[in-house]
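USER: For my understanding, would you kindly supply a protein sequence with its structure tokens?

ASSISTANT:
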Amino acid sequence: MSNEYRFNPGDFVVYPTHGVGKVVDITESEVGGQKLELIAVNFDKDRMTMRIPMTSVGKTNLRPLSSKDIMDSALKSLKGKAKIKKTMWSRRAQEYDAKINSGDPCQIAEVVRDLHKPADKGEQSYSERAKFEEAFNRLVHEYAVCESISVEEAGSKIQDILQSSHL
């Protein structure tokens, strides 16, 4: 991400490895004799505030929320057929982690789609279920903020899309 986007207090942002956060403050601080402009991002669900130097925003891939078009594209991919490679779980888990931590809602939606297992289709392993929930929660939180709806409502809507794709 280039620094052409200017973040402001109150903006919702996405930090790829933590999901949706809210810019709470932009301050100047002196660190090691140098003045730094720091952006403070609060992640409510993790009860954490992260301070990122403005000069490092591009390297961290901090970005504004996805546009409606990108979110619609992500939700549309949930309706597709699961694409599960015939490789060992450990290898697939690494690929899923990379997609989840990319912060890209389309890639996260692919993980949700691929790991979603309807109740009537048998059990999932603990680690598959954990990966699914991590991806699902990331997607739900960004969708909720994009649509200005509750996390619960966003989760229900995404579950409905997943259920309808298996009918």
About this structure: The chain has six helices and five strands. The two ends are 39 Å apart (CA to CA).
